Amino acid sequence: MKTCDISIWNYHIGLTNMLWLILTFSLASVSCFEPKPEIGVPSGLVPHCPGAGKNATIADSSMPLLQVIIQRLTDTGVYRRSIPIKSAYKAILSDKKFDLSKKTVFYAVGFWDSSVFPHSRAMANGYAKRGYNVLMSETFHFLTYIYPKSVRLSRVIGQQFGMLFVKLTQAGLRPENLELVGTSLGAHIVSHAAKYYQSVIGKKPFRLTGLDPAGPCFRGLPADEKVAPTDAEHVDVIHTNIDGFGIAERLGHVDFYANGGEYQPGDIPYIPCLVICSHIRSLLYWWIALDNPKKFIAMKCDSIQDARSAKCYNNTELNYAGLETDFGKPGIYYLPTHNEFPYYMGKKGLKEENEIYTTVSRNINADDNFMA
């Protein structure tokens, strides 16, 4: 095994040349080396958060801040309506444009995230263009506590949304038309919603998609406390930062490890996309895949380690990341991407010589004679 030396530095991330804001985060620069017996091996980034599994409640005074967003496209633009969770059921049923006979997607935002942010709106629009009823979570008030306490709230928040889905199903929404998507901490929130839903309805939602589900505090938890294959009829996961803010273990029927799942290539050549950048890249891949359902092509792997090391090119079993995922082909998949928007490589990514990290390194050292 390897251990890692972590130094903290500030890194300015340009999300892509098509996104809308530049975020500044403190990121971890990681260098790995073979451990010596006296210094041990790493146990991960906050694998256990004592107390995170204890009960939590939402006070009546705070409940109006837990909201559901209805979003759809209209002839004049985008319609959005924010509704407190306690009023959401009646508001949705009274909305003449919300058709319970159609596919319905619920998208849960993550830690320090909001439905008002551009990437959340874009995700909702991506589904709306495909004819879905679109619901989103607004949990900013609750997921801006110190992280372990926000984790502690994820179960009760998920159960509240699960209650809403139960009521909608009792009103006519069929389980096979319900799809749940969550980013980071939001992935575990929809997991709790699905678990509650199944306990009451006796059936599972059709699909649950985890976009780099949060790893800190969840790595040491059992399956009933995080995303699991039993949450829905079809569970797929995109891993983009498994050793940082994501989680390495398989959580779904189909798990995609983008570029190995550890870190993603940066938009600027030779500039790495580190922890936060890699973590949020999962939602960008998914959003783009909504418009390009057969462009993110992945190769099946024998193990997570093979996915990490991009040793899956000899496998001819392929799958798509996106709405065209074939759940009849469960397993671990290596998903190659490009470093620039729109990221997908299509069939080009199936050639080992185009594997991006190796290609970049080879190009850097292309000269036979280097003189400094």
Automatic annotation (TrEMBL):
<dbReference type="GO" id="GO:0005615">
    <property type="term" value="C:extracellular space"/>
</dbReference>
<dbReference type="GO" id="GO:0016042">
    <property type="term" value="P:lipid catabolic process"/>
</dbReference>
<comment type="similarity">
    <text>Belongs to the AB hydrolase superfamily. Lipase family.</text>
</comment>
<dbReference type="InterPro" id="IPR000734">
    <property type="entry name" value="TAG_lipase"/>
</dbReference>
<dbReference type="GO" id="GO:0017171">
    <property type="term" value="F:serine hydrolase activity"/>
</dbReference>
<dbReference type="InterPro" id="IPR029058">
    <property type="entry name" value="AB_hydrolase_fold"/>
</dbReference>
<feature type="domain" description="Lipase">
    <location>
        <begin position="93"/>
        <end position="342"/>
    </location>
</feature>
<dbReference type="Pfam" id="PF00151">
    <property type="entry name" value="Lipase"/>
</dbReference>
<dbReference type="GO" id="GO:0016298">
    <property type="term" value="F:lipase activity"/>
</dbReference>
<feature type="signal peptide">
    <location>
        <begin position="1"/>
        <end position="32"/>
    </location>
</feature>
<dbReference type="InterPro" id="IPR013818">
    <property type="entry name" value="Lipase"/>
</dbReference>
<keyword id="KW-0964">Secreted</keyword>
<keyword id="KW-0732">Signal</keyword>
<protein>
    <recommendedName>
        <fullName>Lipase domain-containing protein</fullName>
    </recommendedName>
</protein>
